[in-house]
Amino acid sequence: PEGVWLNSLIYKEDGIEMEGHAFTNFNIVSYVENLKRLQHLTDVYLVESKEAEVEKTRLYKFKITFKVKV
Questions:
Q1: Is 31 helix (H, G, I), strand (E, B) or coil?
Q2: Is residue 35 over pLDDT 90?
Q3: Contact 55/17 with Cβ under 8 angstroms?
Q4: Could you tell me which residues come within 8 angstroms of residue 23 by beta carbon, excluding any fewer than 6 positions away?
Q5: DSSP state of 40
């Protein structure tokens, strides 16, 4: 959704880890809910969401993990 951007996408043996920033926690929750609706993803979890300051702007940093169905 609008207001969310990704900083990293890391493939791990046990799944995928995604980190990024958002303007609000609501933006992050919307993003996670959208990912959970995708049929080819499983075990979608919001691992972390915390307030951060980036270039004098208050944002929320997040980490999401999930697995891809094969």
A1: helix
A2: yes
A3: no
A4: 3, 4, 59, 60
A5: T
